[in-house]
């Protein structure tokens, strides 16, 4: 009798205990799976938020262009893969615009110039705002005729901007441009200084003009 009872207990008890244990393990596994999915979603959201913050930190708040640091970091990275040329573009008589029409209109003029330059260059080219009224463009070309042609397009397009104050007074806009052709070698800071000197040469020549020359090659 005792042997039969022991057999029944040994047979039935595991059957009555196993289903609740299995159900508990299943529920824990399901909760773990859901938690891992939620954790993955949170991590993705954090990565997207971080990417947006980094992008915002690299942009000029007024024009939306790359800021100075981001532009030169980008150019240094691009130069390792392909050659190109550098333009420095400065808005002419900008202080006069600010003085006569106020900083609000001055900001509007700069934004209009920034958008104009962006439309005038190619998809492979890069643009940044590197100073108050100064912009820089990296052109994905080291061909002198092509670089000069693009710079002239930028210059002419800016003069065609129909910029007006809230009082509907038209404000003429123009830019001076200095450039260096083929900046594949050497330090980008040196090329920037060379382009900047040519920019001021354009200013001395009466503004609203382009001065571009090949990069100076250092002796080996």
UniProtKB/TrEMBL annotation:
<feature type="transmembrane region" description="Helical">
    <location>
        <begin position="6"/>
        <end position="26"/>
    </location>
</feature>
<keyword id="KW-0812">Transmembrane</keyword>
<dbReference type="InterPro" id="IPR029787">
    <property type="entry name" value="Nucleotide_cyclase"/>
</dbReference>
<feature type="domain" description="GGDEF">
    <location>
        <begin position="82"/>
        <end position="215"/>
    </location>
</feature>
<dbReference type="InterPro" id="IPR000160">
    <property type="entry name" value="GGDEF_dom"/>
</dbReference>
<dbReference type="InterPro" id="IPR043128">
    <property type="entry name" value="Rev_trsase/Diguanyl_cyclase"/>
</dbReference>
<dbReference type="GO" id="GO:0043709">
    <property type="term" value="P:cell adhesion involved in single-species biofilm formation"/>
</dbReference>
<protein>
    <recommendedName>
        <fullName>diguanylate cyclase</fullName>
        <ecNumber>2.7.7.65</ecNumber>
    </recommendedName>
</protein>
<dbReference type="GO" id="GO:0005886">
    <property type="term" value="C:plasma membrane"/>
</dbReference>
<keyword id="KW-0472">Membrane</keyword>
<keyword id="KW-1133">Transmembrane helix</keyword>
<dbReference type="GO" id="GO:0052621">
    <property type="term" value="F:diguanylate cyclase activity"/>
</dbReference>
<dbReference type="InterPro" id="IPR050469">
    <property type="entry name" value="Diguanylate_Cyclase"/>
</dbReference>
<dbReference type="Pfam" id="PF00990">
    <property type="entry name" value="GGDEF"/>
</dbReference>
<dbReference type="GO" id="GO:1902201">
    <property type="term" value="P:negative regulation of bacterial-type flagellum-dependent cell motility"/>
</dbReference>
């Amino acid at each position: 009798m005792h042997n039969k009872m022991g057999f029944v207990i040994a047979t039935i008890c595991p059957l009555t205990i196993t289903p609740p244990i299995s159900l508990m393990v299943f529920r824990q596994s399901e909760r773990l799976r859901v938690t891992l999915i939620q954790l993955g979603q949170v991590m993705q959201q954090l990565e997207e938020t971080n990417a947006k913050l980094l992008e915002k930190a690299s942009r000029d708040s007024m024009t939306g262009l790359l800021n100075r640091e981001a532009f030169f970091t980008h150019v240094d990275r691009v130069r390792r893969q392909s050659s190109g040329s550098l333009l420095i573009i400065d808005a002419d008589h900008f202080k006069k615009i600010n003085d006569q029409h106020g900083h609000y209109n001055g900001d509007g003029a700069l934004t209009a110039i920034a958008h104009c330059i962006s439309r005038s260059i190619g998809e492979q080219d890069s643009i940044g705002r590197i100073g108050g009224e100064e912009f820089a463009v990296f052109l994905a070309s080291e061909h002198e005729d092509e670089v000069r042609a693009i710079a002239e397009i930028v210059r002419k397009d800016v003069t065609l901007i129909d910029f007006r104050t809230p009082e509907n007074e038209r404000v003429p806009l123009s830019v001076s441009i200095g450039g260096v052709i083929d900046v594949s070698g050497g330090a980008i800071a040196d090329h920037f200084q060379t382009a900047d000197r040519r920019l001021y040469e354009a200013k001395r020549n009466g503004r609203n003009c382009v001065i571009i020359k090949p990069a100076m090659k250092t002796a080996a």
